[in-house]
Design goal:
Elements lengths: L3 H24 L1 H4 L5 H5 L9 H37 L14 H6 L45 H9 L38 E2 L8 E2 L3 H13 L10 H4 L4 H14 L1
Antiparallel strand pairs: 1-2
Length: 261
Amino acid sequence: MLTNEQMSTFRSQLQKAKEDMEKRLKENDHFDIENGHYHQSMGELSSYDNHPADEGSALYEREKDIALNDHAEDELKNIEHALKAIDEGTYGTCQVCGKDIPLERLEALPTTTYCVEHSPDQVSSTQRPVEEGVLLPPFGKFEYDDTDNVAFDAEDSWQEVAKWGTSNSPSDFAVSPDHYNETYIESDDRVGYVEDYENFAANDIEGRNVTVYPSPRHEEYEENLDEEDTMSVFGDLKPYEIDPYTEEVAKEEKRNHTDDK
């Protein structure tokens, strides 16, 4: 049980701490977060002419100010809660179990109204800011990463987004790309397919029921084959493989199909 003198000492300490905290928050406008956007605190009108690195620095400072303001406001609430406990005559006892809080603990932490056993801050959070994700390897976090899967994976997702623009420039590459739309890593990778002909041809695993979808890529593919004077990227087909792909056989199959109807 605290003596009247000890209670008066703690009241004076808490009252002074409250005045100091309120003065600090007033003088710095709650760490300058009273402004709606961090540009206002820097005198900026927009992000248009700012370098992305400058924007990142400004955003970091803004997030730090918000964290410091939250910490200061929480401290002020704890001070006010402790002063209220003094007025109600419960200061110095744990509000959970009712046992006396050791004097040494109150001297180290005057705002506490809990004993060590019932302090709400028993576990340190292991959650990290989502921004720290950029420190991890870019791939290996998703289902198909680091596998031989040919599905649309995280790397394909990145390439699909990167084609719309990144901070890279031609000077960032060992071999300068031909176009600014290709200024991202592995821009020549095929997205969603492995071989060129997979982009316009649909067939089963045995090569039956081939359907070709006309497209600029298909025309380019045929022109490349003609230039090389070959029937496929694997070379000329064997005699028993040629027939199913000839126009004569296709016409004959179409006539048979019509007759069956």
